[in-house]
Amino acid sequence: MSISLRSGVAKIDFYQVFGMIDSEEGQEQKEMRKVYQRLVIPVAGLFELNGILEKVLKAIKDSNTTQKPSAN
After folding, report:
1. Verdict on whether the full-model pTM lies above 0.70
2. Could you say which DSSP state residue 50 is in?
């Protein structure tokens, strides 16, 4: 994932890794990846997105603490 900000616009790119290639020097491998989803919103929208994600995370946390352990 990468995030860039420019002229009041935030661009968030999500990548899909589809393989590894050897680097030029042969010392290490590099990921081959491509953008598979891009979100472009006004920077002001980041605050709203943050609030939404906080609510989702709280709901997940609350649901995990209220679940009873299953008896296997």
Report:
1. no
2. H
